[in-house]
Specification:
alpha+beta; two-stranded antiparallel ribbon
Length: 319
Amino acid sequence: MTNRTMYYGKGEVFAYRTHGAPIVGVKQIPESDISQKDHTIWGLKVHVAIGGQQFLTSFTEGDNSLVVATDSMKNFIQRHFAKYKGNTTDGFLYYVAKQFLITYPQMESVKIYADELPFLPTNCIEKHQRRVSSLVFRKSRNETPFANVEIARNGNGIKLIEHQSGIKDLQLIKISGNSFVGFVRDEYTTLPEDSNRPLFIYLNINWKYEDAEVGIDETPVRYVLAEQVSDIASAVFHELNTKSIQQLIYHIGLKVLERFPQLCEVGFESQNRTWETVVEEIPNSEGKVYTEPRPPYGFQRFTVYRNDLEKEKSAGHGG
């Protein structure tokens, strides 16, 4: 049964490396002031899955003679984080996945995923001046960059099957300049049209390189920082007269592809978390009072491809 699902692995492998190599020399874009990525603390939460036909008897017969304990996998990842000489999460995932195949011949494929665990700077007082602390950092609870890599044996070599980068858990609110009108109205419709609503979205974004090798070769000017993509998303949200979340994510995707020609596609998972109005008018104020929306919520999934951008440019719409 060649299509059998069969793999095992280790989840939530936490690794924190101090004084890792920073990412410098990235391409500058108008929407972001990010010019580098400091790895004074470089935190990862890794999930690894191992495949190989020789593991079948471990399932069918309980034969552990070729099984690498998942605790050993955890140690393997953490130790190799220290050995890695590069500076990107994508590059590290490819490096450690390759080391698994080199070290253990019974392994045929490795799927490995990591969430970055960002730490933010804090301030201190030195010589009566406020400065950025070189010692104290604040763990971020905000959006999370991530990457995943899949590799497999290919004859005597190793083949990169897939590489994807992304950022998840963005939460963006635009307080005006959004509408939702003209949708189907029938006996099931209770939602009123709104020509100027606040729009609160949850957003996950992922992207792929035209050449998958580019994302792991660590040439800084070709590497796309997740923080830059996040800045593009908020800049497009600000600029666009948003008629729907569908329209918004399409235009975010176009702008990401315009800024980074090395990418071939940008994917989205979005949720509508728009607040409900509690107080419509406050005397002598433009403000209102809102509350969290009741469940359920609307969601969207969509992928924007490079040929979408080319069609927009051909039609004279630009990115």
